[in-house]
Structure formats: structure tokens, C-alpha cells
């Protein structure tokens, strides 16, 4: 099995979005460069960001996200973000009415079921938890091997926390990677065991 990573873009003060779910300028770095990050041509980053992010995206087999993230993105229109093969959605509800059953999205009830399904689907590739409440639950349960943060130069003041509602101390190593891109600082920490 591959590693388990918690990942997201985040403000300097630790928020992934405002209370109303608006990320504001947190994702500005994804359109602040000249190098296409994906085939769509919308995402263009600095060469440094491309060299850090693209290989990571290529190693991720499954992203685990909460139902709230799924709903506010309209399920990414049935196409997993970042070219990832599958998305496991943690939800007490099944797929939305009219959802394409062939779309590579899997709806499971609870974080443990999400981890089991993601490990099955990912094989030896990386399992990624979206930051926020679901990612925080995975960190608290001891499943996360690595924390990746794309830190944007903005202070939101309040909002949705990167680590969700984690209320206990967790020690990280490093950072073992620090990469400066346009409008972003990429950080990677291993979780201390």
C-alpha cells in the first residue's frame, strides 16, 4: 500500500476557506504562472510549483473528501480533480439523484469505510485526504503519513480550518520539503510516529 497524505491549499493563518466556503485568493497561485499544470489549460503555475505538484498528482490514486466538499464543487462534474483516478466521498447519504453510476466516485458511510475503499482502489499508489474535517479525522486516527500544504500569502482571519476540528497535539517532522512558487510556499511534513 502507498502512503496516506493530507493535502490542500491554505492561508497563512491555517484556513482552507472562509466560513461561507469561499477560498478567496488561496488558489491564486494556480493561475499565476506560465506552465500548464493540467490538460485543461486553465491552471498555469510557476516552473517550481509544476515540478513539485505535477509528480505528486501523478502518484495519487484516490482522494478522500467529505460530502460537503463534494456538494460545494458540484461533484467536480463527475470528473475527479487533478486527474486522479477515484474519489471516495465520506457521506451518510448515497450518490445524488441522477448521478452517473459510471463516474469514478464511491460514496461510503464513515471514515473507516473510506480508508478501506481507498486502499482497495489505490493499490500501491498514494491515498490523499482532502484537508478539513475529514483529513483532520484521519490525522487524529493515525492514518496520515504526510502533511502537504500549499501556503498562500493571505490571512483570512477565520473560516474552515486546515486540520478541521482536531483538538489534540500531533507532532510533525521537518519540513522535509520547502518550495517557493509564485504566490505560494509548498511545504511537506512527515507525521512523527
TrEMBL record:
GO molecular-function term, one example from the UniProt record: 5-amino-6-(5-phosphoribosylamino)uracil reductase activity
Stored InterPro entries: DHFR-like_dom_sf (IPR024072), RibDG_C (IPR002734)
Pfam families in the record: RibD_C
GO biological process: riboflavin biosynthetic process
Residue ranges of domain Bacterial bifunctional deaminase-reductase C-terminal in the record: 112-170
Annotated Gene3D superfamilies: Dihydrofolate Reductase, subunit A
Protein name (database record): Dihydrofolate reductase
Organism: Actinoplanes teichomyceticus
Upper taxonomic lineage: Bacteria, Bacillati, Actinomycetota, Actinomycetes, Micromonosporales
Amino acid at each position: 500500500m502507498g502512503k496516506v497524505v493530507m493535502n490542500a491549499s491554505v492561508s497563512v493563518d491555517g484556513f482552507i476557506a472562509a466560513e461561507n466556503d469561499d477560498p478567496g485568493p488561496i488558489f491564486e497561485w494556480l493561475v499565476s504562472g506560465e506552465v500548464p499544470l493540467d490538460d485543461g489549460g486553465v491552471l498555469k503555475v510557476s516552473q517550481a510549483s509544476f515540478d513539485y505538484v505535477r509528480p505528486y498528482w501523478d502518484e495519487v490514486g484516490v482522494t478522500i473528501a467529505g460530502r460537503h466538499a463534494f456538494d460545494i464543487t458540484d461533484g467536480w462534474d463527475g470528473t475527479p480533480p487533478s486527474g486522479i483516478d477515484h474519489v471516495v466521498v465520506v457521506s451518510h447519504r448515497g450518490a445524488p439523484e441522477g448521478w452517473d453510476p459510471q463516474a469514478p466516485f464511491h460514496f461510503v458511510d464513515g471514515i473507516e469505510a473510506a480508508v478501506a475503499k481507498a486502499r482497495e482502489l489505490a493499490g500501491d499508489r498514494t491515498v490523499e485526504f482532502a484537508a478539513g474535517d475529514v483529513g483532520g479525522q484521519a490525522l487524529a486516527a493515525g492514518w496520515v503519513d504526510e502533511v502537504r500544504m500549499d501556503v498562500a500569502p493571505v490571512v483570512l482571519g477565520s473560516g474552515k480550518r486546515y486540520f478541521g476540528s482536531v483538538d489534540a497535539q500531533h507532532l510533525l517532522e521537518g519540513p522535509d520539503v520547502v518550495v517557493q512558487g509564485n504566490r505560494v510556499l509548498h511545504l511537506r511534513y512527515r507525521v512523527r510516529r
